[in-house]
């Protein structure tokens, strides 16, 4: 039987709460930027890519918001204005309300 052990805390994966703690600790900014031609982009920044797989998360966000997007410089960028949807989804995923900062 092989048991997976978390590299961070050394506990077996099933006991590890690093990802939960990471979600509590982080300060995540969700804001909208206007890009070229006045197109809004929703930016999600501050998620620690060591703890959370940004590619996976962006895939989920893109499907929830039905939009295109990308991961760039450790930030998730989504085409369009999706602040509320992003917030809802991050809460569903276990991020705490206090860690989410919604910009303008
Ligand atoms: Zn751990």
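^ Assign residues to that structure.
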């Amino acid at each position: 039987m092989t048991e997976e052990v978390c590299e961070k805390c050394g506990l077996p994966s099933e006991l590890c709460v690093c990802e939960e703690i990471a979600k509590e600790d982080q300060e995540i900014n969700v804001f909208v930027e206007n890009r070229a031609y006045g197109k809004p982009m929703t930016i999600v920044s501050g998620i620690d890519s060591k703890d959370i797989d940004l590619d996976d998360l962006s895939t989920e966000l893109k499907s929830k918001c039905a939009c295109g997007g990308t991961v760039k410089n450790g930030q998730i960028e989504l085409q369009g204005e999706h602040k509320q949807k992003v917030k809802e989804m991050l809460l569903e995923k276990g991020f705490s309300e206090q860690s989410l900062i919604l910009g303008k």
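The radius of gyration is 15 Å.
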